Structures are given as structure tokens and as C-alpha cells.
TrEMBL record:
Record's subcellular location: Nucleus
Cross-referenced CDD domains: BRCT_p53bp1_rpt1, BRCT_p53bp1_rpt2
Domain BRCT residue range list: 32-121, 200-230
Protein known as: BRCT domain-containing protein
One of the GO BP terms on file: positive regulation of transcription by RNA polymerase II
One GO location term (cellular component): nucleus
Signal peptide region: none
InterPro entries hit by this protein: BRCT_dom, BRCT_dom_sf, BRCT_p53bp1-like_rpt1, BRCT_p53bp1-like_rpt2, TP53BP1-like
Keywords per UniProt: DNA damage, Nucleus
The organism of origin for this protein: Capitella teleta
GO MF: histone binding
């Protein structure tokens, strides 16, 4: 058994924004809501969870490792709610279920491994559909797409190249010569290299932000590159 732990405190602004998005979808039915009541007030104690999981024979990874995740008989990410964390994005990309920490508590209480399916957390909030998307197994939506990642920020390039590879993409070298059909899209931030930007524009290759990748993973489908303003590589909040 292999586990990842992820917890990020959400700001009041994030919570307010999420509530506004969910309120906009007044027609959402029960099947589209989380199967776990995320409002249940049980503190997320990372140290305690680590102790409980390892005592029960599990291994807790510091970072996402696709080989370990796929070779384990069970791999879960444990969190207290849907997250916008790197580990959560890796899990979405790799098809690793994200499960409520309440599952760990209940397993310890019952002294056996319980089925985790009723504890699964949502994939996240869809910007295009304006509500929570239930967890799904459609993690291959970007598989075999060829992508170039460009930014002056080396960490950005390394991180998102890694996420895209876990999602099944073929990551191309940004220093290559662009030709038709070599790249399906360019992932970049505002510091995109000028030669990459000009080549992509000349060849009609879409340039998108990391939010496009995130939203494709959350929605479980390949979204139009221009479906939301936040998909623009140079988008910034006013």
C-alpha cells in the first residue's frame, strides 16, 4: 500500500470563490456532488495520518512516483478536500484516487481496510461548468499529445513537464525547430521564449497556460484551448 498526503489551507477568498461557483449550478443533482460530506469537521493531522498509515503497513511517499504508484497493490492520495496542489494534480494525471482522511480514521476504528470508494473526493471545480466534478477514471485525456513547455522559470518547466509526462504526453525540447505536426500545443507562462511564441503563432499551434491542463484533468476531457480566459498563457488577474 502506497500513500500520498496532501493538505493546503484554503484562503477565505478561495472558499468564497468556490461557493460562488457551486451556487451558480443550481441544477446540479446528487450524483454530481461529493460522496463524502467535506464539511465534516475532523482535523487533518498529517503526522497522525503518517503514523496510522505506516503502522498499518503502508508506505507514505514524500513526492509522487508513478512507478511506485502503479506497482503498488493500492495507491491513494489522502486529503481533507479537493485541492489545487501539485500532488493532487499528479494524482489526477496518473489516475490515483484522492480519498478523504476520514477513511483512515474509519479503517483504524474498524481495525481493517475498508473499501475506499465511498470516501473518494471530487476531482475539483470546473471553470467551464461552474461546479464540482466528481472523481472519475478518465485520466488519459491528454495521452500521446505532443507538447513543448516554455518559461524562463526553470522550476515551472520541470514541474509541468513532469505532470504532462504522467498524463501520458510526449514532451518535446523547447529548443527544437518547430515544424507542422511536431507539437500539438505549447504550455507556457508570460515569460515564454520569443522564438517559441513566434513559431507557434506562425504554425497556428495553441499556446495555453497550466490552467488548461488542470481543467482537462479535472473535467476528464480535452477542453477547447479557448474555452476560458484563464487558459491564456499571459492571463493575469486584474
Amino acid at each position: 500500500m502506497v500513500f500520498l498526503l496532501s493538505h493546503v489551507d484554503k484562503s477565505e477568498e478561495q472558499i468564497k470563490e468556490e461557493k460562488a461557483m457551486m451556487a451558480a449550478d443550481v441544477s446540479a443533482n446528487a450524483d454530481e456532488s461529493s460522496s463524502i460530506n467535506e464539511g465534516e469537521t475532523i482535523a487533518y493531522d498529517k503526522d497522525q495520518l503518517y503514523q496510522q498509515l505506516t503502522t498499518g503497513g503502508g508506505k507514505v511517499l514524500d513526492n509522487f512516483d508513478l512507478h511506485e504508484a502503479m506497482s503498488a497493490d493500492l495507491c491513494l492520495l489522502i486529503s481533507d478536500s479537493h485541492q489545487r496542489s501539485l500532488k493532487y494534480f499528479y494524482s489526477l494525471a496518473g489516475g490515483v484516487p484522492c480519498v478523504s482522511h476520514i477513511w483512515v480514521r474509519d479503517c483504524c476504528k474498524m481495525e481493517k481496510r475498508l473499501p475506499y470508494h465511498s470516501y473518494v473526493l471530487p476531482a475539483g471545480i470546473s471553470l467551464t461548468r461552474q461546479h464540482l466534478i466528481e472523481w472519475h477514471s478518465r485520466h488519459n485525456v491528454l495521452r500521446l499529445l505532443k507538447v513543448c513547455v516554455s518559461s524562463k522559470n526553470k522550476k515551472y518547466v520541470e514541474t509541468w513537464s513532469s505532470v504532462l509526462e504522467v498524463a501520458g504526453c510526449v514532451v518535446k525540447d523547447a529548443s527544437m525547430t518547430f515544424e507542422p505536426g511536431v507539437v500539438n500545443f505549447v504550455l507556457a507562462d508570460a515569460s515564454i521564449a520569443s522564438h517559441v511564441k513566434s513559431s507557434a503563432i506562425d504554425l497556428g499551434i495553441p499556446i495555453v497556460s497550466s490552467e488548461w491542463v488542470i481543467q482537462c484533468l479535472i473535467n476528464g476531457q480535452r477542453l477547447p484551448y479557448d474555452a476560458h480566459e484563464k487558459f491564456q498563457h499571459d492571463y493575469h488577474e486584474d
